[in-house]
UniProtKB/TrEMBL annotation:
This is Ribonuclease P protein subunit p29. It is found in: Nucleus, Nucleolus. The gene is Pop4. Belongs to the eukaryotic/archaeal RNase P protein component 1 family. Component of ribonuclease P, a ribonucleoprotein complex that generates mature tRNA molecules by cleaving their 5'-ends. It comes from Campylorhamphus procurvoides.
């Protein structure tokens, strides 16, 4: 390196300090140069956090194409899903603290309305379409507008909720579900506030 003159050295130091301390004006830098000791400040660059990409699920069209919710014909057997019904009964007993005889009906009714019904045995007791009345079976799938029910005859029935009344019995307690007031997905029902007043509307 070639030795620099005093003026060049001063210019270099002044430029270096200007870059190192961008918030200082020239007079302040000049004043600091008259001192024997000089403390340089460091201004780190702000790091921008990378945005997290949201994981996208399947669209309704992709789910249909992949047949995610279809039950294969060889699996459409009532006996296969009886263990599921036994699990559901234990789940409801735990949810309702044992379904004791002195339990208040409206409390049990409220819990059943918000409970998961997959595995429950239901019966269509009233319907505007007579062909649905009497259908009894285990609920295999619940969607916003329909129940998929497997009957004792190993037939998979798709029953709409609208215009149908379903009965559900467990340990001697019978609950009625008015399908027209039940148009929710199973995952949405837990946060729904239901009115427990009776209604005759189908």
């Amino acid at each position: 390196l070639q030795p620099q003159g005093s003026e060049e050295a001063k210019g270099f130091v002044h430029a270096f300090l200007k870059r190192s301390m961008p918030t200082m004006n020239d007079d302040t830098i000049q004043d600091m140069l008259t001192r024997k000791a000089l403390v340089l400040q460091h201004y780190p660059k702000k790091k921008t956090k990378p945005k997290r990409k949201k994981t996208k699920g399947f669209t309704a069209k992709q789910r249909r194409e992949l047949r995610l919710f279809e039950i294969e014909p060889e699996q459409q057997k009532y006996a296969i899903f009886l263990p599921l019904h036994e699990l559901w009964k234990q789940y409801i007993r735990d949810l309702c603290h044992g379904l004791k005889p002195d339990a208040q009906p409206h409390m049990i009714q409220g819990k059943l309305l918000k409970a998961d019904l997959h595995g429950a045995i239901v019966t269509v007791t009233k319907s505007k379409c007579p062909s649905y009345v009497g259908i009894t079976g285990i609920i295999l799938q619940e969607f916003k507008h329909i129940f998929k029910i497997i009957t004792k005859e190993d037939k998979l029935k798709v029953v709409p909720k609208v215009n149908n009344v379903f009965s559900l019995e467990i340990d001697g307690f019978t609950s009625y579900i008015y399908g027209s007031k039940f148009l929710l997905r199973a995952s949405e029902r837990s946060a729904k506030k239901f009115k427990l007043k009776g209604t005759i509307d189908l």
